[in-house]
Specification:
The complex is a heterodimer of chains A (298) and B (413). With 298 residues, chain A is α/β, with parallel strands linked by helices. Chain A has 12 helices and 13 strands. Chain B has 413 residues and is of the alpha+beta class. Chain B has a domain of 266 residues: Alpha-Beta Complex (paralog of FGE (formylglycine-generating enzyme)). Chain B has 12 helices and 11 strands. In chain B, a hairpin with a 5-residue loop joins strand 5 and strand 6. The chains are: A alpha/beta (298), B alpha+beta (413). Chains A and B meet through strand 12 and strand 13 of A and strand 9 of B. The complex binds guanosine-5'-diphosphate (GDP), magnesium ion (MG) and zinc ion.
């Protein structure tokens, strides 16, 4: 008979494993060693990090239909913030926070646009960074996701279950709503409808019996504004001219609304019908982000 | 009283500041060196073939050695125009009426408007008196740099073999056209004279207006530029406006190959290959030499700045500050990338594109600000970061080199 071997119980370790890891984004209870949240697909490293600093991070919801330029905009934004060429600076937290910037800039530098973002939230790029605004001393912990447009669309149309999107909508401190100028210029209004739908879905959310989003800042960002110079001259006027129902809705339902025009690259239709960036010249990329951060409660 | 006393004060002031200016003294030194050199050349009469070469080099060097013109409107232009500063809008942004008595003749006014290229053409030059001819030639050498004849490698689109082309000698503006220079064109009614415009655009001319609806570049107001931007390159102009200005001053837009040759300054290395520079100053990026993203103020700067980024031929800001319209149509390379049997490529709309060169103050990647890199823009686009410079075929200039020989003699006396 083999004698019973008694192993010393590392009780603190067990306790650590037994305690579930509550996802920072969606509150799902994951096992401690999961890599991505089983609820929303966000990397659990994000939760590990988010619980360590003294100040809880704030999320910014980036909203826009597939192809409106979310990935390109965010990737370039992060590169600009990391290069410290502007007053606002950002430090990426965790390796996963660098991927979006790296993939976008690598693609642009070799005269391509990045691949389309896949629908599965585990393939979304999540970014956690520490943002320093010049004006305020305290650095801010910010979490931004580059969501798949299809998932947002699905959520808005009530098709399928998109916990990451619902979590973002409910818990984000601010929203960045992207509207594609090239589509507006082509006479389309899908982008505007999408924005109005998304904003009204935010507007319906309640917190402690009040409209949760009434005081949260909303930045309406016209992307790909390189196709229409006048959009840069006065984005608000452009919005009133081309997206009047969006403007109306914003002013009625939200107290902090800003309109911005941005563009990352000038592009042309390539041989296979795809867009090829002719040259990369970021314009007014940081403005909406800075505006939002300055208006979210510290 | 005031009017009478002012010029004298200015004169005294100018002499004083010239004596204090190190450039003045280095100018004297280089001039005497040039005189010695030329003297030696006159003695050695065997040098027959090398004449034009030597002169060409002298012309190029002269410009670089003297530190070039400090401002787009050089001294000689100022001398011709009397007080050249009087044309700039005053502090209120209003344009004062010109004192017409200064200009005694049409050629004089053309010199002041930087239209010297018209006066150096054979047909016209022979009708002018010698003094005017000299003035026009001086201005020409002052404002333009010679790109000698030879081969240039246009590079490859998609990894194929390189394509070399032979170019005849061409003169290219040392600086991009400034707001102040372009203003002369607007003031002279350039937008109202169909002769300067391509036939296909005459009906579209009414769209080329500024912020107040007056004819002119997109960012101007009331037909004038902001005074502080006088020496900045003119931007907010379509390709047609650039081409029309060029025609007005008797020049044209450079083609892609000419621009590339001026910037990359190819040198035959034997074996049929050409050594071409990646940037006008050499092969490595140096952000102190060009106004690009991350090196400059994120907006245009005066055309005479970044003198340390000058090309071999003495051209300023070929890379950085603003993109420059070229005469060549632009198309994305559509070679091997289209698989056989694939549908015909979709054109990017009806508006054709022209090639633009050299990168601008907001160009993000070094690789997109090289001599070789080219981008394109729709001909009607009036962008905040696209300007232009003009070119003139050397064969269009009467006695291109002989005239500068006169200059040499003059310099010796
Ligand atoms: N002209 C232009 N096109 C852009 C710009 N940004 C993105 N695009 C185009 O929009 C497409 C989709 O961008 P992407 O960021 O992937 O959109 P997402 O689906 O919202 O993430 C790209 O492939 C480009 O063709 C821009 O700044 N200018
Ligand atoms: Mg995407
Ligand atoms: Zn989750």
């Amino acid at each position: 008979m083999t004698p019973l071997v008694t192993l010393p119980l590392e009780s603190y370790q067990l306790a650590k494993y037994a305690e579930p890891l509550v996802c920072f984004v969606c509150r799902f209870e994951n096992s401690f060693d999961a890599e991505t949240c089983r609820g929303c697909g966000a990397p659990t490293a994000l939760t590990h990090q988010a619980t360590s600093p003294k100040r809880a991070p704030q999320m910014i919801a980036v909203i826009g239909p597939p192809g409106c330029g979310k990935t390109v905009y965010l990737g370039m934004l992060l590169d600009l913030l990391a290069r410290r060429t502007t007053g606002v600076r950002a430090l990426a937290r965790g390796a996963f926070s660098v991927t979006l910037q790296q993939e976008t800039v690598e693609a642009l530098a070799s005269c391509r646009f990045p691949e389309r973002t896949e629908n599965t939230p585990s393939r979304w790029n999540w970014v956690h960074c520490q943002v320093h605004l010049n004006r305020r001393r305290c650095p801010r912990e910010i979490i931004v996701a580059d969501p798949s447009g299809d998932a947002i669309l699905g959520h808005l149309e009530g098709q399928g279950h998109h916990p990451a999107v619902s979590a973002l909508f409910a818990r984000a401190a601010a929203a960045l709503v992207l509207v594609d100028v090239s589509e507006v210029e082509a006479g389309g209004s899908d982008g505007e409808y999408f924005a109005v739908k998304a904003l009204s879905s935010l507007d319906e959310l309640e917190r402690k019996g009040r409209r949760a989003w009434r005081r949260r800042p909303v930045a309406v960002v016209f992307t790909k504004a390189d196709v229409c110079e006048t959009c840069f001259d006065d984005p608000r006027e452009y919005a009133e001219l081309h997206c009047s129902s969006l403007v109306q809705f914003c002013h009625q339902r939200f107290s902090k609304v800003g309109f911005f025009a941005t563009s990352v690259a000038r592009s042309d239709t390539g041989p296979l019908g795809s867009q090829v960036p002719l040259r990369v010249e970021p314009r007014a990329i940081v403005d909406p982000f800075e505006w939002l951060i300055a208006r979210t409660a510290c | 009283m005031l009017l009478l006393s002012r010029p004298r004060i200015v004169c005294v002031h100018r002499v004083k500041s010239a004596l204090r200016n190190p450039v003045f003294w280095s100018g004297i030194a280089t001039a005497s060196a040039a005189i010695l050199l030329v003297g030696a050349w006159f003695v050695d009469l065997r040098v027959g073939v090398g004449t034009s070469l030597a002169l060409m080099f002298w012309a190029i060097r002269r410009h670089r050695a003297f530190g070039s013109v400090p401002e787009p409107v050089g001294e000689s232009a100022a001398a011709v125009a009397g007080d050249a500063g009087s044309d700039a809008p005053d502090g209120n942004g209003l344009v004062p009426l010109r004192d017409t008595t200064i200009e005694s003749s049409l050629p004089q006014s053309m010199l002041r408007q930087q239209r010297y290229a018209l006066l150096v053409r054979a047909k016209i030059a022979e009708t002018l008196d010698g003094d005017l001819q000299t003035q026009a030639h001086r201005l020409l050498w002052d404002r333009m740099g010679l790109v000698p004849e030879g081969l240039v490698d246009l590079g490859t689109a998609a990894g194929g073999e390189s394509s070399q082309v032979w170019l005849d000698p061409v003169l290219i503006d040392r600086h991009c056209v400034t707001n102040k220079e372009y203003f002369e064109f607007v003031l002279a009614g350039g937008y109202q004279q169909p002769a300067f415009w391509d036939d296909d655009i005459v009906s579209g001319l009414l769209d080329f207006v500024d912020t107040t609806g007056a004819p002119g570049p997109r960012f101007w107001a009331d037909g004038a530029y902001r005074p502080e931007l006088a020496n900045h390159p003119v931007v907010g102009i379509s390709w047609y406006e650039a081409a029309a200005y060029a025609r007005w001053v008797g020049k044209r837009l450079p083609c892609d190959a000419e621009w590339l040759k001026a910037a990359s300054w190819p040198i035959a290395t034997g074996g049929g290959t050409l050594a071409q520079r990646r940037y006008p100053w050499g092969n490595t990026m140096d952000r102190t030499r060009a106004n690009l993203w991350g090196s400059g103020p994120k907006t245009t700067v005066p055309v005479g700045e970044y003198a340390n980024g000058v090309s071999v031929g003495g051209l300023y800001q070929l890379v950085g500050n603003v993109w420059e319209w070229a005469a060549t149509p632009f198309q994305l390379p559509r070679g091997e990338t289209v698989p056989a049997g694939a549908a015909a490529p979709v054109a990017s709309g009806e508006v054709p594109m022209k090639s633009i060169r050299g990168g601008a103050f907001d160009t993000y990647f070094d690789a997109q600000a090289t001599c070789q890199f080219k981008s394109g823009e729709q001909v009607l686009a009036r962008k905040h970061n696209i300007g232009f410079r003009c070119a003139l075929s050397a064969c269009d200039v009467a006695n291109l080199f002989c005239q500068s020989e006169d200059d040499l003699e003059e310099a010796m006396i």
